[in-house]
Automatic annotation (TrEMBL):
SUPFAM superfamilies found in the cross-reference section: ENTH/VHS domain (SSF48464), GAT-like domain (SSF89009)
Composition bias type Low complexity, residue spans: 194-204
The name this protein goes by in its record: Vhs domain-containing protein
Gene Ontology biological-process entries: actin cortical patch localization; actin filament organization; endocytosis; protein transport; vacuolar transport
Disordered, as annotated region: 139-231
Keyword Transport: yes
Biased composition (Basic residues): 215-229
Domain of life: Eukaryota
Amino acid sequence: MFSQKKPYSAVTVNIETLTSETYEEDDLSGIPDLVEVIKLQASGPAEAARAIRKKLKYGNVHRQLRALTILDGLIQNAGPRFQRAFADETLLERLRVCGTSDLSDPDVKRKCTELFRSWSQYKSTPGLERIAKLHQELPKRKVAATQERSKAVRETENPFGEEEEDKPPSPTHRTGESSRSHQTPYGGASGTVSSFSHTKSPSSSGGGFFGGSKDKKKKDKDKKGKRKPFNLELEKEAMKSAIAESSIATTNLNNTLQSINRERERISENPQAVAGFEGCKQLRRKILRYIHHVESEEWLGSLLRANDELVTALMTFEQLDRSIDADSDSDDDLAEQAHIYR
């Protein structure tokens, strides 16, 4: 199936310019010219809606705020033809996500809240009925931001899965690959989760590969039995350090993610972002080990909070790691899901 080429004309060029850092957040000076350009072509409203949605989806915070300002300006000034034609479901869904998602910048969410309330006045305006209801709605396909669907969260769920998880991953290993996968001739595709979900095979009592696997399980069990008992007093300083490192690591990763221009660069192609992502994965394993052992309320609250921050940072990386080419006007978020969780 071949996708139809999306329109790219003076409408998109104007919106690209108007969302740049050259303009202040609430500057409406370019709206009259944009309105005229939209009126010149039949596809003007639809192209404007798509260009605005792209900025809301992939732009930095300033571009998202500018896109919202431009949309509000067009709703007020572009006339009945624009009002009846621009509000397709993909734009509406993007607005819902921007207004409610935990991944949205607080300033973007705040502006969405203000505009949604303001737009409620258009409930009787032809074409704007659905825009007027945004203040009452949540995203209809909010499936991305769940821990069950997060590969990074699943991979770090077992804190005792790797003997060398505190060591930096080898550059030759793929992101999230188990550091033990090279030890077995058939383990190339196994990850942390799958490594601990095998059931006993009737043939596991045989020799060859299965016998070796059984011996390895026995050795792993022996190692677990020999693991030193947890001593809270001895581990206090290490726990303090891990909690502090987690806070710094999540802040640094979030700042790095915010600084990347996703219209130009893929998140997973940015070395600094990838390094921060891997660091957060290792720290989460460490924090989960402490949570597993610690019962003291004095420490548990801080450890759980650190874990929550790490999970949010890891999921943010995954959510933002989307190629702009994976976008689709007809199936926006599902296209993203196919891209991330393939």
